[in-house]
Amino acid sequence: MSSKNLITQLQERGLIAQVTDEAALVERLEQGPIALYCGFDPTADSLHLGHLVPLLCLKRFQLAGHKPVALVGGATGLIGDPSFKATERKLNTQDTVHEWVEKIRKQVSPFLDFDRGENSAELANNYDWFGQMDVLTFLRDIGKHFSVNQMINKEAVKQRLNRDDVGISFTEFAYNLLQAYDFASLNKNLGVELQIGGSDQWGNITSGIDLTRRFNQKQVFGMTVPLITKSDGTKFGKTEGGAVWLDPKKTSPYKFYQFWINTADADVYRFLKFFTFMSIEEINALEEEDKNSGQAPRAQRVLAEQVTRLVHGEEGFNCR
């Protein structure tokens, strides 16, 4: 699979919301494999369905010959990302966050291949570089590269500043700098050239691109995947019981399977593109088959089986 085909296929699947300098990125990918990363902050003791699309994007890139780096935010998880959050996040203790880091590392690992030669996956933790950094180094070496004028104009922050009842603390305001430095650090130490994340991360990603250019004089790229919504306008990944978690102790494989079985007809073929590795041709053929069968569509069962196996393995699927 050529890199150009990879970008085209991601677009055909509806998996690219925004990308910086697409033509230059395609040209760089055509030159050979790159390293890319996606960050996962430990804001709970498990990842949920909202994390699955970017996590699977890392896997899609690895299958195309590129090197994925999964970054767990042991430091940024202590701060909290304010992006499009209506209120200040609750700060968790360092012991709690470190415990969650280990759980998330174990959850991420099965999705990636760590024994694949030059494009073997890697796990990183940004506490490794921020844990030893003093405040003066942070302010002098990182803070001096950021304009407050530009930071307050980022849409994710502006929404909080425009509300009279809720402001934003300096702690959360500084989150943008931390994530930006992650990109610069991973670029310098692991050669990472592309960051992917949810579309709510666009402001943080572009800050990282700018800081990396200033620090390392390197051109790097950013790409976001869309935040998934359902056709009826309700939030994806939620049930009456709350979030759908990847941890089988928090959402059992049975409930996980049932969540996908209950997907609306209007969403199911789109979700097959987002959450499975079926080809576009296979998905289109299944849709045509369902349309002409005169019976209940097969697509929901195919979606439920494939995603449950992907997340919980054959054993979890059989225990549903």
UniProtKB/TrEMBL annotation:
Aminoacyl-tRNA synthetase found in the keyword field: yes
Which UniProt keywords are listed? Answer: Aminoacyl-tRNA synthetase, ATP-binding, Cytoplasm, Ligase, Nucleotide-binding, Protein biosynthesis, RNA-binding
InterPro entries reported in the protein's UniProt record: aa-tRNA-synth_I_CS, aa-tRNA-synth_Ic, Rossmann-like_a/b/a_fold, Tyr-tRNA-ligase, Tyr-tRNA-ligase_bac-type
Question: What does the record give as EC number?
Answer: 6.1.1.1
Location in or out of the cell: Cytoplasm
The UniProt family comment states: Belongs to the class-I aminoacyl-tRNA synthetase family. TyrS type 1 subfamily.
UniProt name for this protein:
Tyrosine--tRNA ligase
Identify the species of origin: Proteus mirabilis
Lineage of this protein's species? Bacteria, Pseudomonadati, Pseudomonadota, Gammaproteobacteria, Enterobacterales
Report the gene name.
Answer: tyrS_1
